[in-house]
Amino acid sequence: MLDLLFILGGLVLLILGGNWLLKAAVALSLKLNIPKIVIGMTVVSFATSAPELIVSIKAALSGSADLSISNVVGSNIANLGLVLGVTVVLSKIDVKKSFYITDWPVMMFSSVLLYLFMKPDGILQASEGIILFGLLVVFLIYLLKFQKQAVVDEMPEDDELLPLWKTAMFLTIGGAALWGGSDLLVQGAVSMAQALGVSESIIGLTVVSIGTSIPELAASIIAVLKKEKAISLGNLLGSNVFNILAVLGITSMIIPLEVNDDRLMQVDIYWMLGIAFMVFPLVFIPRGLRLGWRDGILLLAAYVTFIYSVVA
User: Fold this and answer.
1) Every domain of the chain and the residues it spans
2) Could you give the CA distance from residue 194 to residue 188 in angstroms, rounded to a whole number?
3) Which of 75, 79, 171, 229 is most buried, by the most CB atoms less than 10 A from its CB?
């Protein structure tokens, strides 16, 4: 009963947190005259990536480096396969050329760089973590200086300019609600799964990575329902970049991350690379610069296949 209350309470916090964070993101975009996709790729992405960061640091310090890395790999797969899939099934997203000039290439480059760092020896060293984090700083500076809108804004007239104090309040309580909600949801789901006799390894590869991606799901669905699709797409691309450059970058600077599970480097990381690449052609096929419900079904099918490969 308590596990179910944790799950329900977590979902409520996620919905409220996603709504508050969206209000703050739109207000920041207006206040600073910054494209909404930049806010999505920075402020919203950082807030929704907080669970991955906390889980990864805790896992690494407790000697579970595999959980740190698999959490990020699994979350990146879930962000695009599950979250983006659900989002575009609910509503199409029209994108502009900066998506394929900047946003997607940076996400893909980060993913490939992680693979190149870890494939030879299965270790993410502190020096490599410094490089990852340094690239994040460069990317953020570029976004703030040069990034243009990558998604068509359908209802700019509905944007609400808030006082700075109210923007800060919504940002703080929204991020805290997403963080706390995901923690409650993961705790409840893990406890329920254990009570049902599901192994901890399967829980780690599925429940934890999905649970830490739920803030992205909540924020993205709320953004789409409120016609703020630039924040939705930017949140997902930015979260994947943050997960690699910030979460693994910071964690490996604290303690080197060594992979012990062969599956992670032989199977899972290729799923992460494949689904990240998959988004690019879907934007152009069958109609240019658009993600629609058919694309969402393909992404969801890929994600379901991945989960099946984990639990089978």
Assistant:
1) 2-311
2) 10
3) 79
